[in-house]
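Quick one, tokens below. Sequence please?
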């Protein structure tokens, strides 16, 4: 892929260009390896795609069934009452109607999170109260502090994404239920579970059953992300019959297309393959976190989604890394500088099969450090060695011993001013040259003029490191280092105890 790819990102209203536009730009009809769009790479299976392809003409020629018919089939699979479910043309359509119908004046949202939860209510003139997730705390959401924030602000509607996008932070079910009860006096509580199918922290992590019994709770679920079919655009919400019916009554009769209908009716025959695909993604997530955590200066945050949130090393700028990965290595990543509460030092990387991860790691090594460090993926194109912006990364890693603080040995060039006065002694003995420094200081005519030079020395002292956030080069609290990620369950750091036995892992899908 050649050309100025930055223009592709600037010309779109989304965070990244569509895969179709990138494929057209490439010229050879092959798009990049996608680490940007959080999609299940193992589902549908090749056999399912073959079946859809064989019936494509029939599928796209005729009208789909009504949304009620498709919803009833989905509910029979999920064992949910149809009167408590509303299906939409993607979760974004449902977010739009939730905002229009159920959010009156204000909405509380932890940030960073999915952009439509901040942008949609602002577009309709609502007040959006943003609760910042702290980098120093690993972007973990403290529900008690969030509840205090909501009450202090007097916010009427509340959103919680579990797992959160982009960091993958997870809240246990009992904590979410307690929070829902604490917010019983609010107009609306939305629990966005779009990525919950990929979580493995609990056997039954969803709160859909509890939502149906409460008057002000809506749970949002995604189908496109889980089924690996973003292009079909379908998702659903679960709430008590009154709330679900209010949303359902506003949706167009044919808001779901024939491809969505076909996939929903295929699912009961492919439940086993779907379950295997989720297990494979969870296993890949551990392996991918381990590989990325081995890169010097890169911080990987715990995730229960099908993506990983990473902080780039000091000196690396996200848009430059993103553009070079795309142009030189044909890899598309999500740079998070345009996400409220994040910055360009962060990337969200979708979990993909190990062969693609090796290619990603190889590309990051070349872009960030200019070396291959034994990566197994063959080099693509004729990319040049990276020696500009992130060359400082190598120097920092080498000079800090992993402590993240510069070694305070630099402020010794000041002696060079008195050197001319002691030239004879310096010529006779090169080694004791530093010793005469105290002697000449009284002799020179008021040459203490150089003394103002040491005065600026306190400025380089790493005071910025004590500015609340983590110092440069140090993994944020809650982030995973290479040692911590091994033996972890993806939620909390654990001692390096090795990986689980391969015999205990689920069989790979497909």
């Amino acid at each position: 892929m050649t050309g100025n790819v930055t223009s592709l990102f600037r010309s779109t209203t989304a965070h990244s260009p569509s895969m179709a536009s990138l494929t057209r730009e490439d010229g050879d009809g092959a798009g990049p390896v996608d680490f940007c769009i959080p999609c299940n790479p193992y589902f549908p299976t090749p056999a399912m795609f073959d079946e859809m392809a064989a019936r494509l003409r029939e599928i796209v020629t005729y009208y789909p069934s009504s949304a009620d018919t498709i919803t009833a089939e989905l509910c029979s699979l999920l064992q949910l009452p149809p009167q408590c479910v509303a299906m939409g043309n993607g979760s974004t359509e449902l977010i739009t109607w939730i905002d229009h119908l159920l959010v009156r004046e204000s909405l509380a949202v932890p940030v960073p999170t999915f952009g439509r939860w901040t942008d949609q209510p602002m577009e309709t003139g609502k007040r959006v109260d943003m609760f910042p997730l702290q980098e120093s705390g690993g972007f973990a959401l403290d529900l008690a502090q969030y509840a205090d924030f909501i009450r202090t602000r007097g916010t009427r509607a509340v959103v919680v994404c579990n797992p959160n996008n982009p960091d993958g932070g997870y809240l246990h079910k009992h904590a979410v239920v307690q929070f829902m009860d604490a917010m019983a006096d609010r107009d609306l509580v939305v629990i966005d579970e779009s990525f919950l199918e990929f979580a493995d922290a609990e056997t039954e992590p969803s709160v859909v059953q509890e939502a149906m019994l409460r008057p002000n709770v809506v749970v949002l679920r995604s189908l496109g992300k889980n089924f690996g079919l973003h292009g079909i655009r379908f998702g659903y919400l679960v709430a008590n019959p009154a709330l679900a019916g209010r949303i359902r009554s506003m949706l167009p009769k044919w808001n779901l297309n024939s491809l969505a209908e076909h996939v929903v009716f295929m699912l009961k025959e492919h439940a086993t393959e779907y379950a295997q695909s989720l297990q494979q993604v969870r296993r890949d997530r551990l392996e991918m976190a381990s590989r990325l955590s081995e890169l010097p200066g890169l911080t990987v945050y715990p995730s229960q989604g099908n993506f990983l949130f990473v902080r780039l090393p000091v000196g690396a700028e996200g848009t430059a890394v993103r553009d070079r990965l795309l142009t030189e290595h044909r890899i598309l990543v999500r740079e998070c500088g345009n996400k409220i509460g994040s910055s360009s030092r962060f990337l969200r990387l979708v979990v993909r099969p190990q062969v693609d991860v090796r290619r990603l790691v190889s590309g990051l090594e070349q872009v960030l450090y200019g070396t291959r460090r034994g990566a197994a993926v063959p080099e693509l194109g004729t990319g040049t060695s990276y020696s500009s912006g992130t060359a400082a990364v190598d120097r920092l890693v080498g000079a800090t011993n992993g402590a993240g603080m510069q070694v305070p040995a630099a402020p010794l060039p000041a002696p060079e001013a008195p050197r001319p006065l002691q030239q004879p002694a310096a010529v006779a003995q090169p080694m004791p040259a530093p010793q005469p420094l105290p002697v000449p200081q009284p002799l020179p005519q008021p040459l203490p003029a150089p003394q103002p030079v040491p005065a600026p020395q306190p400025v380089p002292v790493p005071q910025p490191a004590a500015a609340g956030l983590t110092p440069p080069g140090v993994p944020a609290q809650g982030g995973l280092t290479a040692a911590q990620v091994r033996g972890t369950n993806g939620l909390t750091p654990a001692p390096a105890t090795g990986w689980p036995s391969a015999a205990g892992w689920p069989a790979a899908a497909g």
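DSSP finds 19 helices and twelve strands in the chain. Residues 74 and 264 are 6 Å apart (CA to CA).
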